[in-house]
Design goal:
The protein is α+β, with helices and mostly antiparallel strands. Helices cover 30% and strands 33% of the residues.
């Protein structure tokens, strides 16, 4: 698991050019990491790979277990709804993030087949959160100002533990 402030978390990820054994192995590793960390989703940059891949899935959170390769958010609609979010790459940091309620996503599966899904449930939020990772965007960039101020010390501590000046 890659933690803030690792630079890979701030890079725009590259498209997957070819789905081969290495991509399938990466996706399997991502599912295992997501499960071990009890996450609802995980993006490739969070395991150190700057590729446009994320995985989702938890039965208790009503989010389908699926891999999304080269995803595109084709429609984002609805009111902006606040909800507390956390991130596996930002341990201990949580804050309110406002996101649109309905999302349609298009992506490739591990066989290279294109699929499209629409959700107005938790999956819509998870897709947006993981897609942000592929764009180099973190929840701290989207938190409300009060929460952003509240987590400043925790961010500084993560930088210090990574050997960077806070």
């Amino acid at each position: 698991m890659v933690l803030y402030p690792d630079p890979v978390l701030r890079r725009r990820a590259l498209p997957v050019a070819r789905i081969d054994a290495s991509i399938r192995a990466l996706v399997a590793e991502m599912f295992a990491t997501m499960d071990a960390e009890d996450g609802a989703g995980l993006a490739a940059p969070q395991v150190g790979e700057s590729l446009r891949i994320f995985v989702t899935g938890t039965s208790e959170r009503d989010v389908a277990r699926r891999a999304y390769l080269n995803p595109v958010l084709v429609d984002v609609a609805g009111d902006l709804e606040p909800m507390e979010e956390g991130c596996l790459s930002l341990p201990g940091i949580r804050g309110s993030v406002r996101r649109p309620t309905t999302v349609t996503i298009r992506a490739l599966d591990l066989e290279g087949n294109e699929f499209t899904e629409t959700s107005s449930a938790l999956a819509a939020r998870v897709w947006q959160h993981e897609f942000d990772h592929l764009e180099g965007v973190l929840i701290t960039d989207k938190m409300n100002p009060i929460d952003r101020l509240r987590v400043r010390r925790a961010l500084k501590d993560l930088k210090l533990s990574a050997g960077e000046d806070g």
